[in-house]
């Protein structure tokens, strides 16, 4: 592992680039952010041969090095980096065997950057089925580079690709651009070339058209400004450049690439007729959603019960083996119940991510985008808005970032603002525990789970609210911008088990670790606030004992009253009593109010917060589960269960609408470059949540 090469994977969306990245790196991956932006930067290490390893970077999918969206611009910035250390040693351009012409446009542009490029043509196992044949040797000769036919699904050509990467120093770095610019305006580009001797004319052309000045000297910047004045000429020349590139690509493919439709045995068109049908397409999509949310409850119930009981047993075991004291109380009443409130929902979150990964892997998600475009346009968005809205069922943060593929600023802004209404995985713990408490575990027609249908209705409510909000924003936002819609329709394919596993593993791990850090910190703070208090806190035990000295109550009942009294007189109790008048009309007490406030850091903190509060309050040595503690909580004013139907529905609606995620607000601020829009989100969603919860509780109580 003496030599670690820097390799970048580049390609159009849906060419299998990320699948190749997973195949090359396996679990040796890490996900970070590009400097200054919130787009995921996926990197991993791959052992190419006995002596050489490579640091592989999976760049965002792009159709051109002249991108139209913010997400795609990351590719250009990575290849025209200010730091030479960031520039890759070799680029692997991943192409789709069926869309080679369009893929070669990007290849042609990348090659002009004078970085060695390997063309990896994916889905080679589909060539016979598609009636496609390629003369690889002739294509290599025409493109003056290494061409490798691969299939990530069958692992065909992967070893050859690894060896080609290791041997990158043998590759040529020809230039295509000179022949183009001489046809466009030789005098113009000759003058541009004189701006700097340190960069090629093509690099200067990219800096000029995309306003990306890479480490230019002051005199070079001034010289480039003169060229930037004539924007109309830039656009004309860029258009001509694309035409000339495609002319050359057509000449190359005419000699080396053939498709015999008579030999093709393709099911794609027949499947598309069903999945994109104006009636059956929507029926199938809704049916899939119903299946997903039924599965989230039915499949996850057994492992969730096991995890719930395990954490309860763990807290009881720790309390039994460790000496009584502050540290033991912190573990058993703070940390263990708090973390248990997150870990218990891993099965449901993993199942949700599993279905989303399968839909993306098979190519079905692109059909959903196409299907929904006409509908979404009526509400001020376009078909691409569906991806953030569906991604929002996992997490609003990457979903907001996914809106970067929308080139129209107004449609992109609307999508960003309404995406947090869709039910994210962080809401799932709150929904799951509340639904389990207030909705009977019954089957309708012997098949449909009533709890699963309730969960589905909450997801539909979130999506419907997002659509209504989009209509309002579309009518009120006075932003003029042109709109167009282009979507890639990939082939249907069998999902890769490895890709799905990595996707579910990575997203579930990220969710649990990110939530876990917040939960652990908040659990410790809450435990301290609940276990300490002002002077009145220290006299609770004496006062309660004297109050019930003549009463015929058991020791366990007395301990419970002492524990409840201490909690009410703790710092946490004092804070809760202050906010209680605000939340009481919604059917909540001060304990639930504390949960609401704490969950502004992250929605999923709500369950962990209540678990910590009820653990501190309980004087019972036999630790009960989180669900049992919430189910047994009594409203002292009515003597009935605190989490009744009215309170449960009120809480469900509050969490359905409230913007309780500081991280999402921070991302919206970064994506919109203003605090104006996240503040509008926070206030607007907060008011809607409070009013909805208030009305529902007052009607149902």
Account of the 3D structure:
The longest helix has 35 residues, at 497-531. The chain is of the alpha/beta class and 701 residues long. Residues 32-38 and 619-623 have low confidence and may be disordered. Strands 2-3-4-1-5-6-8 form a seven-stranded mixed β-sheet, sandwiched between helices. It has a two-stranded antiparallel sheet with strand order 7-9. It has a two-stranded antiparallel sheet with strand order 10-11. Among the domains are: 3-170, Rossmann fold (3-Layer(aba) Sandwich); 177-259; 498-700, no CATH class. Helices cover 60% and strands 8% of the residues. Strand 10 and strand 11 form a beta hairpin. The chain contains 32 helices and eleven strands.
Task: Tell me the layout of helices and strands.
Elements: E1 3-11, H1 17-25, E2 29-33, E3 40-47, E4 52-58, H2 73-79, E5 90-96, H3 100-111, E6 117-122, H4 127-130, E7 132-134, H5 136-143, E8 146-149, H6 158-166, H7 177-193, H8 201-210, H9 218-228, H10 231-256, E9 257-259, H11 268-275, H12 280-298, H13 301-321, H14 326-343, H15 346-362, H16 364-377, H17 386-391, H18 396-402, H19 409-418, H20 427-438, E10 443-444, E11 448-449, H21 450-476, H22 497-531, H23 535-538, H24 540-547, H25 555-568, H26 571-583, H27 590-598, H28 605-617, H29 626-632, H30 645-657, H31 662-672, H32 676-700
Parallel strand pairs: 1-4, 1-5, 5-6, 6-8
Antiparallel strand pairs: 2-3, 3-4, 7-9, 10-11
